[in-house]
Design a protein that fits this description.
The complex is a heterodimer of chains A (about 300) and B (about 450). By secondary structure, chain A is α/β, with parallel strands linked by helices. Helices cover about 40% and strands about 15% of the residues of chain A. Chain A is globular. Chain B is α/β, with parallel strands linked by helices. Chain B has one domain: Alpha-Beta Barrel (TIM Barrel), CATH 3.20.20. Chain B is about 30% helix and about 20% strand. Chain B is built from twelve helices and 19 strands. The longest helix of chain B has 18 residues. Classes of the chains: A alpha/beta (about 300), B alpha/beta (about 450). At the A-B interface, helix 4 of A face helix 5 of B. Bound molecules: zinc ion. The site of zinc ion (ZN) has 5 residues of chain B, from loops.
């Protein structure tokens, strides 16, 4: 196993598969009356969140607690962090507290990589800037595998603001590792220069892609991007790249619709589509706990 | 005044000879030359170069004395073989008045480790809105000839035109930090495959190239001199090649780090590799080396940019851009540009090569001419002011940080072994460095 989970690229095929298989076992715990395993008793997991994300923080917190770890929530608000303490000083504090794992969410790309140089414990990237969000990619892969049986050869369209999306970066890397075929669909302004080197295809035309996919993953698109001329208006964006009812109807029968949340209903996805049987949005949340349990278990379980 | 005789020195790599320095001037160059009472310096096999001249140094004083002072930066310069440095204007207060440039000039003179030639700001407060009193700075004791808003681009085309025109009255030159700010909002690194992968906002090559293209045309239109700071892209090289072929009076500099390092180093997210303009690609590095060899890029300038630990030991996007350069510039240039045969095979193999004369031209003579520093950039010869440096071409030095004389530690070369060691530097006939150690 690996020491840190900073990028989906840290996972080779066998390790990624091990995480998903372990998550499957962890999911059975959720069905029990006592939803707890003693595995990480006496271990300390710190949630270090520089950005508000109740959803992700709670998911990691529940995961750690189900493994009987002690959880410290070190949120940026109201702590020394918001008083301008440097990441390095915070890292030294966490080190002194004996953190076995630090789960970090940060608005700066690469902050988890910096942190990993300053603490002895494992660092888990829970989303860094516009870089990566590897546990989101793992839970997405887990969800696809649960619904569709396999990832090998799966045709996945990831639609929306790829440029600013850490979810897209992690998903492209992980899905390629696991043998899926990814197509990014986006207006050209919201694709990074250099995307050509990524292990995926690129399209500007959602309608040309839709009929031929097993999974369509809609990314959150902030309306404010139009102020920077990434697109002319929210309405035009929704018309060209939104998953509305008519488009959803043209998906293959078995295809699923995913969204990492939080959704802009009416922007990238129509409410009727988000609430349809194809949508996996609620189970993605549940799967998040199982996958994060697996990650913490595999990072910490092997160490004494 | 004191006399020195440097024995066995090889001027620009030529045969061994002896150099006598008396009263601040090279008195004699000949095997066996000496002077009564002269201090003998063993320079056996060392290469004598005219003292290096840096067109682009950030000395941080006044304002950020925690990062560097005129004195500490001058000491780093001397140890790097420099006898003159041009101090950039982005201090606090900004060097946009005769008072501030005279202050920096005097601090340099008092430190006595290198000639410190202040650069004046083009616009008041570097704000890019109205011209600073360029004439007053030119007429001051600091005799400013280079003007730059470095750190910022003079992006308003009309203001740039006026600046280029105005300084013609006193043979000034505008040194442009070429960066179209509307194309680099929030930029963190070169825009390309690495920025895409690392999720860092890109700094596109076109933001530099568009300004250079505009400014060479402006310089042609008004018949002015233009200097381009830290050229970093292959595209910029092509525009400069075109402009020079057309007879436009443009000169350009490249930094040592753009000759050696690439954007792949950002993979670590260690901000010691964050710099503006950013590290670019292998193809850009190759184009810059070729351009420096063939003269399209005129000079090497360090863009020595000291930053405190707090400003570098943090998240990449929060870190300030810039790298130390004065003490490593010559070794990096020897490593990347000097014919390896002149270094006992110690440099990188590659097509673009200089000899020692070529190094002296690009690191001393030509920058001295651009800056208008008459006493610098002259090969050691009788009657010439004794500004020179002695380099051991056989030495290999591993950069470890301990040797750094700057107040800051942000070198991107830590752990690298580079060829060449500055053994001695003479400023106006007095040693600022002997045996690799600063003399004050
Ligand atoms: Zn600059």
């Amino acid at each position: 196993m690996i020491t840190h989970l900073l990028s989906a690229a840290d996972l080779d095929r066998s390790t990624a598969t091990l995480v998903l298989d372990t998550a499957t076992e962890m999911a059975t715990v959720a069905g029990r009356e006592v939803k707890k395993l003693p595995t990480l008793r006496g271990r300390t997991v710190v949630n270090l969140f520089y950005e508000d994300s109740t959803r992700t923080r709670t998911s990691f917190e529940v995961a750690a607690k189900r493994l009987s770890a002690d959880v410290i929530n070190f949120s940026a608000k109201g702590s020394s962090v918001s008083k301008g303490e440097s990441l390095k000083d915070t890292a030294l504090t966490l080190q002194a507290m004996g953190a076995d794992a630090v789960v970090i969410r940060h608005s700066a790309s690469g902050a988890p990589h910096r942190l990993a140089r300053w603490v002895d414990g494992s660092v888990v990237n829970a989303g860094d800037g516009t870089h990566e969000h590897p546990t989101q990619a793992l839970l997405d892969a887990y969800t696809m595998r649960s619904r569709l049986g396999t990832l090998e050869g799966l045709r996945v369209a990831i639609v929306g603001d790829v440029l600013h999306s850490r979810v897209a970066r992690s998903n492209v890397l992980l899905l390629a590792t696991l043998g899926a075929k990814v197509t990014l669909v986006s207006p050209p302004t919201l694709l990074p220069v250099g995307v050509g080197a990524w292990p995926c295809a690129v399209s500007y035309d959602l309608d040309a892609v839709l009929g031929d996919v097993d999974v369509v993953m809609m990314l959150r698109v902030q309306r404010e991007r139009m102020n920077d001329s990434y697109f002319p208006s929210a309405r035009e964006y929704a018309r060209r790249y939104g998953l509305d009812v008519a488009r959803a109807a043209r998906l293959p029968e078995h295809a699923i619709v995913m969204h990492p949340g939080p959704m802009n209903r009416g922007m990238e996805i129509a409410p009727e589509v988000a609430d349809s049987a194809r949508a996996t949005i609620v189970e993605q949340v549940a799967n998040g706990v199982s996958v994060r349990m697996a990650v913490l278990y595999l990072l910490l379980g092997g160490k004494s | 005044m004191s006399s020195f005789v440097l024995t066995g020195a090889r001027i620009l790599g030529a045969a061994k000879t002896d150099i006598v320095i008396t009263d601040g001037v090279v008195a004699e160059v000949a095997p066996g030359a000496s002077a009564p009472g002269a201090t003998r310096i063993d320079a056996d096999g060392l290469v004598a170069l005219p003292g290096l001249v840096d067109l682009h140094t950030h000395l941080r004083e006044p304002g950020r004395e925690d990062a560097e002072t005129v004195e500490s930066g001058s000491r780093a310069a001397a140890l790097g073989g420099y006898t003159a440095v041009c101090a950039m204007a982005n201090t606090d207060p900004v060097a946009d008045t005769a008072g501030v440039v005279e202050q920096v000039y005097r601090l340099g003179r008092d430190a006595g480790l290198a000639h410190v030639q202040p650069i004046g700001a083009v616009t008041v407060g570097l704000a890019g809105e109205r011209l600073a009193e360029l004439g007053a700075m030119a007429d001051s004791a600091a005799a400013v000839r280079i003007f730059s808003d470095d750190g910022h681009c003079v992006s308003d085309p009309r203001l740039m035109r006026r600046a280029l025109e105005y300084v013609k009255a006193f043979d000034g030159v505008i040194a442009q930090h070429a960066e179209e700010p509307r194309l680099t909002a929030g930029a963190q690194m070169h825009e390309g495959e690495w920025s895409a992968r690392l999720g860092l906002t890109g700094w596109p090559a076109v933001a530099e190239e568009a300004i250079i293209a505009r400014d060479v045309l402006l310089a042609e239109h008004v018949g002015a001199r233009l200097h381009i700071c830290h050229v970093s892209t292959a595209g910029s090289v092509e525009i400069l090649r075109w402009a020079k072929a057309r007879g436009i009076r443009v000169t350009a500099e490249v930094t040592p780090h753009h000759l050696l390092l690439t954007d792949a180093l950002a993979e670590s997210y260690d901000p010691v590799f964050k710099v503006n303009p950013p590290l670019r690609t292998d193809a850009d590095v190759a184009a810059l080396r070729a351009a420096l060899a063939d003269g399209v890029v005129d000079v090497v300038a360090t863009d020595h940019a000291p930053h405190t630990v707090e400003d570098k030991e943090c998240e990449w996007p929060y870190a300030r851009p810039g790298m130390l350069g004065l003490q490593t510039a010559l070794p990096v240039v020897l490593h990347t540009m000097l014919d390896p045969a002149l270094l006992d095979g110690g440099g990188e193999p590659g097509p673009a090569r200089l000899d020692w004369d070529g190094v002296a031209e690009r690191m001393s003579r030509r920058p001295a001419r651009i800056a208008g520093l008459a006493g610098h950039g002259r090969d050691p010869a009788p009657g010439v002011p004794a500004n020179l440096t002695l380099v051991d071409p056989a030495a290999r030095v591993t950069v470890d940080g301990g040797e750094i004389a700057s107040r800051s530690r942000n070198t991107p070369y830590a752990g690298r072994t580079l060829p060449g060691r500055v053994v001695a530097t003479f400023l106006a006939g007095a040693p600022t460095v002997l045996d690799g150690k600063a003399q004050r």
